[in-house]
Design a protein that fits this description.
The complex is a heterodimer of chains A (370) and B (366).
Chain A: H1 2-14, E1 28-30, E2 33-38, E3 44-51, E4 61-67, H2 71-81, E5 85-87, E6 93-97, H3 111-115, E7 124-129, H4 132-136, H5 146-159, H6 168-176, E8 183-189, E9 193-201, E10 207-211, H7 213-222, E11 230-235, E12 249-266, E13 269-285, H8 295-320, H9 327-334, H10 336-342, H11 346-352, E14 354-365
Parallel strand pairs in A: 1-5, 2-6, 6-7, 7-8, 13-14
Antiparallel strand pairs in A: 2-3, 3-4, 8-9, 9-10, 11-12, 12-13
Chain B: H1 11-22, H2 26-38, H3 42-65, H4 72-80, H5 82-114, H6 121-136, H7 140-154, H8 157-160, H9 182-186, H10 188-194, H11 201-204, H12 214-239, H13 251-256, H14 267-297, H15 304-321, H16 325-360
Helix pairs in contact in B: 1-7, 1-12, 1-14, 2-10, 2-12, 3-10, 3-12, 3-16, 4-5, 5-6, 5-14, 5-16, 6-14, 6-15, 7-14, 14-15
The chains are: A alpha/beta (370), B mainly alpha (366).
Chain lengths: 370, 366
């Protein structure tokens, strides 16, 4: 009796198609790139790009640009024109036009990425200097599909620390946390794509300034999570170089970096003492000096030059009243009482803070020639 | 007279029934709730909650010390008589039923949100009902075996959280006691709600083979639960900024979205699918307790028909109401308050009563 009941239930279950909403891969269009921009007439424009897997199609992807109310609304419009129904869960890169950053509150437009359980939180956020539509319609002949090209480009330039790699999950953190301001990659399309560096945003999301690759490397050394390589080329002011080729240059690769950040509150302002220890290999030296004998001297010179560069970086950051490094996190952890007073105006407080960076260099190797 | 001898459970089964009943869907949203009530100090509230749990468990064991072969139903009948005891027995049974129903509804909502948005909710509930009947309809020993198996099958899951360690910002946790001790105390309430479940002890205690190991058992069970909770909470706190974590409904699931392998995206889905086993061990345990309670009330030996009845009632209820997330959360708040009564107030009152009772009935407790 019981066995029959069991069997009946099991047989019945075979007819139970729980997956009424299943999707076959053939019937799906994956959106790989998403763009948001503001056009000349101040309308928000959404653009989507997805790959085409068809031998008959000559172009490798299809794009759509549309003035829409929201992202979801734009996807609906996309559905009206593409071959299959669209799916957002595979987005690789989110492109934001520079004009987006003229107004605050643009972050609300991204709501759907965080709300939809089917979306991932790992697409990279990129600022496009120029029009997003130019970039998304770009189909270079000597490169793979744009989505692949762009993701690879961003990944490798982050590996060399030319720019940061901010996923939308990280952006969410940077937007909401009071002790840090957002920083995202900046890209421009001239003839080719060009990674410009890192765009730093204000607390409310508006554009503040851009860090070039060198500044970005220094900036990245100070962040909590470091990864990749740090090749740095410096101009050594101690060597007056009158040669046509300006030979007072030196390149190092920092292989091992450790930083120690201390914060204190005294004299009505925060004081940061940041110690940076770098172990470097010397990869290039254009001016004549005996490296074996003058190692100590060069170490000191490089350290001083880097300190000067850090100072420039902090000048920029403090004038813009932003905190892309997240020094506010240290203030919260170590000087909570003072932090609480200024947390809603942290950029202001940091701009008044005193920041001292001390750099200590150790040359581990100079290569195969002296 | 050993009434429950044929369904005796081992210490391990005892531990995993308690642990299984405790760990449900609460762990997904716990860190957000703690952050809302007590900021990044919330994990300390969990420790206080754990201590309170241990006290309550030990009180229950103390109550049973004199009546080692009684479930709470037998005990209440002994102390208050057949009719008076119903005043307490009915709410307890009702509580177990409601809790079982809620855990299932929550699990169903998760499945709908993540896997099967278009599938009707009652259908999912029906699918739940089949394994529920198969496990809870049998004796407690089968339930114990199931829960033990589920624990071994899913013991790896907390360790997957270690994949996000490299993205963590430990500075978020400092300073300890940010705003003094009060926020930590405020966090005890959500902590307690999330570790309710040990009250199954009221029923499973007489089934335990070696009663002298009961204390050890409840300590281990509660500690396993709390360690998993603390680990999940601390990692969520270190990963999410304290300013953003409260904006997530289920911080733990959002955190799992970060884990991606080159051969596997959306690890959160896999995790959730496996986590269903853990959640099932919770609602199945409660289902057993509810059905057992009903069978005791109507004085029948076999509780399995009541499992079927309760399961059908739950499906019908879902079919009629179609609960939403907000409703489920609202109900959970109420049932958690009932849980405080069953799990904390009842042990205290019964313990006090038993002390008096023993004094007046010296010698005839057996």
């Amino acid at each position: 009796m019981k066995r029959t009941l069991c069997c009946t239930v099991l047989v019945l279950m075979l007819f139970l198609t729980g997956c009424t909403d299943r999707l076959s891969v053939e019937n799906v269009t994956f959106i790989l790139l998403v763009g948001i921009d503001v056009d000349e007439e101040d309308h928000v424009v959404y653009s989507l790009s997805s790959p085409v897997f068809s031998k008959e199609a000559k172009k490798k992807e299809e794009e759509l640009e549309v003035r829409a109310m929201t992202m979801r609304n734009a996807r609906e419009n996309f559905d009206r024109s593409v071959v299959a129904s669209t799916l957002g869960g595979k987005v690789q890169v989110i492109l934001l036009g520079k004009r987006i950053f003229e107004h605050k509150d643009w972050f609300q437009l991204m709501d759907v990425f965080y709300r939809d359980n089917k979306d991932t939180v790992l697409p990279t956020v990129v600022l496009v200097d120029g029009k997003v539509s130019d970039l998304i319609n770009f189909a270079p002949k000597d490169k793979p599909r744009l989505s692949t090209y762009l993701t690879e480009l961003l990944r490798t330039s982050h590996k060399r620390n030319i720019t940061v790699n901010t996923t939308i999950q990280e952006l969410h953190r940077q937007m909401y946390d009071k002790g840090i301001t957002p920083s995202i990659s900046e890209v421009r399309k001239d003839k080719n794509l060009l990674v410009m560096g890192t765009a730093l945003l204000k607390e409310d999301g508006r554009y503040a300034l851009m860090l070039d690759p060198l500044a970005n490397k220094l900036f990245s050394t100070l962040r909590e999570h470091r990864s990749g390589e740090f090749p740095i080329t410096l101009t050594m002011p101690s060597h007056n170089e009158d040669s046509f080729y300006k030979l007072n240059k030196l390149s190092i690769t920092a292989t091992d970096i450790s930083t120690k950040t201390k914060v204190k509150y005294e004299d009505n302002k925060f004081r940061y003492d940041i110690k940076v220890n770098m172990r470097v290999t010397l990869s290039e030296r254009l001016y004549p000096i005996n490296l074996d004998k003058n190692a100590k001297k060069i170490e000191k010179e490089i350290g001083e030059e880097l300190e000067a560069q850090y100072k420039l970086l902090f000048n920029k950051i403090q004038t813009a009243k932003i905190d892309p490094i997240g020094l506010g996190l240290y203030a919260r952890a170590k000087e909570y009482k003072q932090w609480k007073k200024v947390q809603d105006n942290w950029g202001e407080a940091l701009s008044k803070a005193e920041v001292n960076v001390k750099v200590k260099i150790r040359i581990m190797s100079v290569g195969s020639i002296n | 007279m050993k009434k429950y001898a044929k369904n005796e459970i081992s210490l391990m089964q005892f531990i995993f029934i308690i642990n299984g009943a405790q760990v449900g869907t609460g762990i997904m949203s716990l860190s957000g709730e703690l952050a809302a009530s007590s900021g990044t100090d919330g994990w300390m509230s969990l420790i206080i909650g754990w201590l309170l749990n241990l006290v309550a468990c030990l009180l229950i064991i103390q109550v049973f010390k004199r009546f080692p072969d009684d479930t709470v139903y037998d005990l209440l009948k002994r102390l208050f008589g057949k009719w008076l005891s119903l005043l307490v027995v009915i709410p307890i049974t009702l509580y177990f039923t409601i809790f079982c129903c809620l855990v299932q509804i929550k699990a169903m909502l998760y499945i709908k949100a993540w896997f099967l948005p278009q599938t009707p909710d009652y259908l999912i509930m029906f699918l739940f009902a089949i394994p529920t009947y198969m496990v809870a309809g049998k004796g407690l020993r089968i339930l114990g075996r199931y829960n033990e198996l589920v624990f071994y099958l899913t013991a790896w899951m907390p360790f997957t959280l270690l994949f996000v360690l490299k993205e963590c910002h430990w500075l978020h946790l400092l300073p300890l006691f940010k705003d003094g001790i009060m926020p930590v105390i405020r966090g005890v309430e959500p902590s307690i709600y999330s570790i309710l479940g040990f009250e199954v002890l009221w029923i499973i205690y007489p089934f335990l083979k070696y009663k002298e190991k009961a204390t050890q058992g409840v300590i281990i069970a509660n500690s396993i639960t709390i360690l998993a909770y603390i680990m999940a909470t601390i990692i969520c706190f270190a990963f999410f900024s304290p300013d953003e974590i409260t904006s997530y409904h289920q911080p733990l699931l959002s955190l799992l979205k970060m884990i991606e392998f080159s051969f596997l995206e959306r690890f959160d889905m896999i995790f959730l699918a496996f986590f269903l086993f853990v959640v099932s061990s919770s609602w199945i345990s409660f289902m057993f307790m509810a059905a057992f309670g009903v069978s005791q009330m109507v004085r029948k030996q076999d509780h399995s028909p009541y499992v079927a009845i309760i399961a059908v009632l739950i499906i019908v209820m879902v079919f009629v109401i179609h609960p939403s997330w907000n409703q489920a959360n609202e109900w959970q708040k109420w049932s958690s308050r009932m849980g405080i009564g069953v799990a904390y107030a009842l042990p205290l009152l019964l313990w006090a009563y038993v002390q008096v009772y023993i004094r007046f009935h010296k010698g005839d407790t057996r």
